[in-house]
């Protein structure tokens, strides 16, 4: 079993003399561990655009401004502070025309970006509900996060190290050796080492998620999603 594990490259014991550049020159075990957790968020953010089309750009701008006023009023009613409602990047473009209707008036495309930060998720439903039916809104993206992110990531790093050590202890015992001190620890792949061994599977492993934006349909705006965290570590232990 141990030989098959070593051949697969999941856990590796190397001899004392190593020719490859960058590898330790003492017997060692290279192991990895992954700490994972699921947590509920306490912060939320909604990004979207106000969009209006018209042959008269002034009319389209007026529609965008009217929607912006409605959004601010709705957020104030939901208890979201005005400084957490950002309306920015007003842009003017031309809407693509069907070649068959080339003689039709040019349609101006006026857009403004909106970002709403909800720092108290008890307000999330009240803030998101008015957006479900408001016209001229599209391109919704949502992201959730937690104020406990740093604490969670630190705890997961500790869990991952403990998992890695248990793996290393099991391998050392199977080899009739004792585990020595950790010589190197990385929160992620030890890339130079794994590539020198020919074990690099591709890009580095996954880390904590949830600060990435997620595209969503309007009907899903009311759903608050849990956060999934994953913290990998790579560790090199000396063998006694």
Automatic annotation (TrEMBL):
Residues 1-20 form the signal peptide. It comes from Massilia violaceinigra. It holds the Pfam family SIMPL. It comes from the Bacteria. This is SIMPL domain-containing protein. Keywords: Signal.
């Amino acid at each position: 079993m141990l030989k098959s594990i070593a051949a697969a490259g999941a856990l590796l014991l190397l001899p004392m003399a190593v020719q490859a550049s960058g590898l330790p020159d003492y017997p060692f075990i290279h192991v990895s561990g992954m700490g994972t957790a699921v947590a509920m968020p306490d912060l939320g953010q909604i990004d979207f655009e106000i969009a209006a089309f018209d042959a008269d750009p002034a009319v389209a701008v007026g529609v965008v401004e009217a929607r912006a006023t409605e959004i601010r009023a709705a957020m104030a009613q939901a208890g979201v502070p005005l400084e957490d409602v950002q309306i920015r990047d007003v842009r003017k473009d031309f809407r693509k025309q069907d070649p068959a209707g080339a003689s039709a008036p040019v349609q101006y495309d006026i857009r403004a970006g909106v970002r709403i930060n909800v720092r108290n998720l008890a307000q999330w439903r009240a803030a998101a509900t008015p957006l479900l039916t408001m016209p001229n809104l599209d391109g919704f993206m949502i992201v959730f996060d937690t104020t406990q992110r740093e604490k969670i990531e630190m705890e997961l790093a500790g869990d991952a190290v403990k998992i890695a050590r248990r793996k290393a202890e099991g391998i050392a015992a199977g080899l009739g050796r004792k585990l020595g001190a950790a010589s190197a620890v990385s929160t992620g792949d030890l890339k130079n080492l794994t590539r020198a061994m020919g074990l690099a599977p591709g890009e580095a492993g996954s880390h904590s998620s949830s600060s990435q934006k997620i595209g969503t349909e309007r009907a899903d705006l009311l759903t608050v999603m849990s956060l999934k965290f994953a913290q990998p570590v790579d560790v090199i232990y000396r063998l006694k």
